[in-house]
Design brief:
Blueprint (H helix, E strand, L loop, with lengths): L1 E6 L8 E6 L8 E10 L2 H8 L13 E9 L11 E5 L8 E5 L3 E3 L6 H21 L7 E4 L5 H12 L3 E6 L2 H8 L5 E4 L5 H8 L5 E6 L8 H4 L1 E9 L13 H5 L4 E3 L3 H4 L3 H16 L7 E6 L3 H9 L6 E5 L1
Parallel strand pairs: 8-9, 8-11, 9-10, 11-12, 12-13, 14-15
Antiparallel strand pairs: 1-2, 3-4, 3-6, 3-15, 4-5, 5-7
Helix pairs in contact: 2-3, 2-9
Keywords: NADP, Oxidoreductase
Protein name: Quinone oxidoreductase
InterPro entries: ADH-like_C (IPR013149), ADH-like_N (IPR013154), ER (IPR020843), GroES-like_sf (IPR011032), NAD(P)-bd_dom_sf (IPR036291), QOR-like (IPR047618), Quin_OxRdtase/zeta-crystal_CS (IPR002364)
């Protein structure tokens, strides 16, 4: 019998129960994998607390990496022993799991299991933000909030690789230094500086082409004021609470701005898009242009502590759970 973390009722970290769990046998089109590492993400907290809805009981977690144990009928592109990784909605906090074969990607030899688990959701989030939602090009100026987080450290390096001027915000001197070491040209400590005024100074008043904001309530509406006319506001998370309702005419008043609320699962819904995202991500990491450093490791059984650290903003970069 394998073990998994199950949530029977939503709430605080205490609802994360480490239990016996039988994933079952793979059905048609499915694969049973033994997990080597599992990624930790803020979206897991949204599901645990009930902010994002899931039918209970459920196994949280959206990314992981492991080895194929068994394949179901009709699966001819994978075989036992293959190293694979994924980014899906739920089911990751487990020693073993079933998953649709079409949602798996092969992990190249030059990418470690922990790296793959730590960067599938975060790295492909950076991919769609930089390559699809607002295609960043050389000469662009971007602002990214929570620069020392898992997505931020990947996106900062990748954006710099693309030739952008990369501005970030962070909440401590330690996090400022971490972000600076991962591609950010300028990092604003928002506990000491007003980030809007700092952006105005850094850009000599020209402001930014795009703002990537996963913080939400605490950074709105100042994020809009960091944009130049025709700039894009990308709200892709709400770690401080949701962005409050606002009149759409505000976008016109502030310079005919664009605003979007994307989610990764729309960008990788098609198999070809999933494969393109994984290919681009593995390539940029494999080349050394983007380094994925794991700063925290927790046993799967201690996932409640991991959630407490993540919610308390005591983590930096990427974190993994080890089954």
């Amino acid at each position: 019998m394998a073990k998994a973390i199950r949530v029977h009722e939503t709430g605080g970290p205490e609802v994360l129960r480490f239990e016996d769990y039988d994933p079952g046998k793979p059905g048609a089109g499915e694969v049973l994998i033994e997990q080597k590492a599992i990624g930790l993400n803020f979206i897991d907290i949204y599901f645990r607390t009930g902010l994002y809805k899931a039918e209970t009981p459920f196994v949280p977690g959206g990314e992981g990496a492991g080895v194929v144990l068994e394949t179901g009928e009709g699966v001819d592109n994978l075989k036992p022993g293959d190293r694979v990784a994924y980014c899906v909605r739920g089911g990751a906090y487990a020693e073993r799991r079933l998953i649709a074969a079409e949602r798996l990607v092969r992990v190249p030899d030059n990418i470690a299991d922990e790296q793959a688990a730590a960067m599938m959701l975060k790295g492909m989030t950076a991919w769609y933000l930089l390559r699809r939602t607002y295609p960043v090009k050389a000469g662009d100026t971007i602002l990214y909030h929570a620069a020392a987080g898992g997505v931020g450290l990947i996106l900062g390096q990748w954006a710099k690789h693309l030739g952008a001027t990369v501005i970030g915000t962070a909440g401590s001197e330690e996090k400022v230094e971490i972000a600076r070491a991962h591609g950010f040209d300028h990092v604003i400590d928002y506990t000491k500086q007003d980030f809007l005024e700092a952006v105005r100074e850094i850009t000599d008043g020209r402001m930014c082409d795009v703002v990537y904001d996963s913080v939400g309530k605490d950074t709105f509406p100042a994020s809009l004021d960091c944009l130049r006319p025709l700039g894009m506001f990308v709200s892709f998370g709400q770690s401080s609470g949701p962005v409050p309702p606002f009149e759409i005419t505000v976008l016109a008043q502030k310079g005919s701005l664009f605003a979007t609320r994307p989610t990764i699962f729309n960008y990788i819904a098609a198999k070809k898009d999933l494969e393109e995202a994984a290919r681009d991500l593995f390539s940029v990491v494999g080349s050394g242009a983007v380094k994925v450093v794991i700063n925290q490791r927790y046993p799967l059984s201690e996932v409640a502590r991991a959630h407490q650290d993540l919610e308390g903003r005591r983590t930096t970069g990427t974190s993994v759970l080890i089954p």
